[in-house]
Structures
1.
Amino acid sequence: MLKTKLKKRDLKQKRRRIFNPKEHEDRKLKKVKISEDLMELREKYGEKLEKYEEPKKNQVLWDFVLKEMVRK
C-alpha cells in the first residue's frame, strides 16, 4: 500500500509544470506586442465611417400584400 501511494504522488509531481522565466518573459512581450497592434488598429480604423444614403429597396410581393391589408 505504501508503494502505491508513493507512485501516485511521484506521478503528480512529474505532471507539475515548472516555472520557466524565459517563457514568462516571452508571454509578457507577446502580450505587449498584441496590445500595441490593437492600439494601432484602433487609431487607423477606429474612426467613424462616412454616412452614405442607402439604396432604395425593391418591392417584393410581401410589400404589396401589406399595402393591400393597410388599405382595407
2.
Amino acid sequence: MTPTTVKLAILVFALLVTRLWEEGRWRDGKMSDRTAAILVVGRLPFLLLGFMLITGQEAVVVAAATGLAALVAAGLYPVVVRRLRRLANRPGSTVKRRD
C-alpha cells in the first residue's frame, strides 16, 4: 500500500467511526435533528477537502471543489432534516426526541 492509500483509508475510517458515534448520540436524544443533519451533510465537503489535500491538488482547485461541495451540502440539509425527523417519528422508533 502506498502512503496516499493509507492516508485516504484513515480519512474514510475516521468519518465512519465518528458517524457511528453521532448516530448513537442522536438516537439517545443528546443531539438534535438539525445538528445531526449538519454533521451528515458536512461530511461531503470535509471528505472532498481531505481527499484533495491528500492527493496533492492545487489550492485553487481544492477551494473551488470544496466550495461547490459545501453548496451541495447546504442544498441537501433540509432533505436530511426531514428524513431524520421521519425516522424519529415512525412507529416503533427508539429515538428519543430532543427538538
3.
Amino acid sequence: MSYRVIYKETPLPRATPARRQATMSSSEEFATEHQALGRARELLETGQHHSVAMHDHSGNELSGVRLQWRLGGFAGE
C-alpha cells in the first residue's frame, strides 16, 4: 500500500493575491501509514504549512480535524 502526504505552504500575510495563488502544493509518497503519519505530524508541528492532508492507496483522505484526531492516537517513533 502507498500513502501520500500533500501540503501547502502558509501564505505570506502581505503577499499580493497573485503571489498567494502561486503558492505551490507539494506531495510526498510513503510505503507505510506509520511513515506518512509521522511526516504529517512533522509538517503540522512546524506551523509552516497552510494545509496538510493524507491519502491512502484507495483515495481516502484524512485532513483537518480527522487528521488531527488520528494523530492524537499516533505515538510517532
